[in-house]
From TrEMBL:
Coiled coil: none annotated. Gene3D superfamilies: Jelly Rolls. The keyword DNA-binding applies. The lineage of its organism: Bacteria, Bacillati, Bacillota, Bacilli, Bacillales. This is Cyclic nucleotide-binding domain-containing protein. It comes from the Bacteria. Keywords: Activator, DNA-binding, Transcription, Transcription regulation. It comes from Fictibacillus norfolkensis.
Amino acid sequence: MREIHDTELLQHYMETFEIKPILNDDLLPYLTLFSYDHGELICTQGDPYNHLYLLVKGKLKIFNTSPEGRTLILSFKTPLDVVGDIEYVQGTDFINTVEAVSEVHMIAIHHRWLKKFASDHTPLLKFLLNVITQKFYVKSSSLSFNLLYPVEVRFASYLLSVCFDEGDALYSGKLSTSHLIDAANLIGTSYRHLNRVIQHLSKEGLVERHKGFIEVKNREGLSELANHRNIYEK
């Protein structure tokens, strides 16, 4: 993580996503722009809550870890989205782990300034209500997806989320094989079964396994397998 000291870039994001009308004017001097690299954690489940984050560039992976250490993917997020909204409203620690899938830019607001200047600011509260209800809808859909759909469909949807970022042309459809165990946990299957699924998708010409990575060969075919809808993204 690094802080970006670029007032023009911050203003660009504020205008592009129409953020200023959401915030109280008193909050504007306390906005901080952060950058995260691919694979870097924004927050970890159980960490103390201290910032509300607005995602303005890149893609995030949201997942939850059980006491036994198993992880379950909940969703992927693209701009404009929020991290820390539920924690802000409830006053709790972070309930999920959030990881950068690509290079990510986040506008951060420390909770002390939110409490001081925006605890009763109606536009922000309406915005957070919309975000939170959307998250509950996506979470319900993704949990049903993990229970009701075969692993092939879940993995296709996962690949579409983790290997492609419409805002970053550098993400060209590759998944490191070092991430397959995590991928199996995140979509709710075993590593052994996931390897069988990859073999099947390879025979169908949808992916190709190389030394060190899985390459998507037919993005449209994966999209068809996932019924042209990615349940892990809103």
